[in-house]
Input
Amino acid sequence: MQQTRLNQIADQLGQTAQGWLKLPFSSWSLYLVAFFLGTFLASAISTSLGALAQFDVVAMGVLLLATEILNRWVYSRRRVGLWLSLLNMLKIGFVGGMYLDALKLGS
Output
């Protein structure tokens, strides 16, 4: 590959990002962002499906199936990388957000 200025900038940005991801605080901040994004997605999906009021049970069944497939995929591995652990944290936030929405509807 040619060593153009754009390639050099992209390489420097990639090395900087890899160095930042090695810090312990950065991984925890990414986990928190993924958790809260999952909670937000749960709230947004339940609100939009509740507004339609047609396929609530079917859509939640599909989402439950997707979370169970993700559980099997994540917990069957010996070593989980950063991206898979972030996806797992997003799933945990999503399930927690769905639980909170169910509590709001029940009260």
Notes: Residues 70 and 76 are 10 Å apart (CA to CA). The mean pLDDT is 84. The two ends are 61 Å apart (CA to CA).
